[in-house]
Write a structure and sequence with these properties.
By secondary structure, the protein is mainly alpha-helical. The chain has 13 helices and 15 strands. It has a three-stranded antiparallel beta sheet with strand order 3-4-5. A hairpin with a 2-residue loop joins strand 14 and strand 15. Helix 1 runs antiparallel to helix 2, helix 5 packs across helix 7 and helix 8 packs antiparallel against helix 9. The radius of gyration is 20 Å and the shape is globular.
Length: about 425
Amino acid sequence: MTNQLNTATETFIQDIQQQAATVNPAWGRVFQKTFADTLQHALVPETNGRMFVLTGDIPAMWQRDSTAQLRPYLILAQHDAEIADIIESVVNRQFFNMDLDPYANAFNETANNAGHQQDQTTMNPWIWERKYELDSLCYPVQLAYLLWRNTGRTSHFDQAFMSAIQKMVTVIETEQHHADSPYRFERAEDRPEDTLIDGTGRPVADTGMSWSGFRPSDDANVYGYSIPGNLFAVESLRQLAQIYTEVLQQPEQAAHFTQLAQTIADGVQNFGVTTNQAGEAVFAYEVDGLGNALIIDDANVPDLLSLPYLGAVASDDPIYQATRKTILSPENGFYYAGKFGAGLGSPHTPKHYIWPIALAVQGLTDPNKTHKRAILDTLAATTANTDMMHESFHVDDPTQYTREWFSWANMMFCELLLDYFDLRVQR
């Protein structure tokens, strides 16, 4: 399926290419292909005011990925109603998905029983995969909120939205006491990262934070409380409080969201901060509330590196700055450096493979334009002559990469390039 670009989008692409030509023409070549690709090939229109979004080379829609795939288009939507319509239709589909099952992370285009139907959890024909990831609830809120802030639209804050939000908040509160949760997940495969121990994961203590079974990589957590996931949830709940105050005029609901956000934030402060090898206070990646903490970072967002990008912490926060220094160093076992680049990898991909998503986030969270330019140069030079981003590539040989078509990574490159030219999504 190939969708046509409208004139405004084609003009926008040409304008960015012209700006890029004065710095590095390769940027413009990659931008032209990647920015157009999601609009042309990843969007599947429906007949009910909704739009399905293919993640790329997997025929399913991830709640997280689809937000990241659409987010850079918000810059166009500020002045282009047609693009705003597309984003709104994706938001509508995201909240349709959430209302179907707030524990699911990925969905089918129709009720076709595709995906991981043999998993030991509560599946239905709409669900591709039911790995519970806290960020799968947060990302649609982010896109709905940003659509409002960038266009003034409020029509997507409808009854379907409110129904899904009620289920979202119920899950977040339920998972503050995971021992009482109805959620179970097991997969009968050899890869241990694809299942939860005993169907529920390792034990956790109640901390005020909300438990999550899986990381944004779709790999199982080691410890049940994701610190970046919980900080993202704090930001999303505060965005919901603003929506329910200013648009929906439901102050009691807004106050509830604000209180829940504060409880989670207190939990992060009390349990989610540890020390690095230098004795500095840093955010852990995961904790269990029982004294165990993991000092790593994973290339998938939300991760610790991305916290300012998500609006979850200030970029000059001293704990964040110490955390950033730690995770962009060998102290993080998933930081790799080689002839063609250095950055974050993931246990989801082979050793010495780094992720374009993480490189883009590294640039988006760095105010230094020289640093941004170096990262854009690296990204444009490591596409293996495809002019497309991949999931990951080997630091010493970019022709060795994972995933031929990964739309999320494509759009993260675009967002960094637009940021370099001072074009940003309004918050």
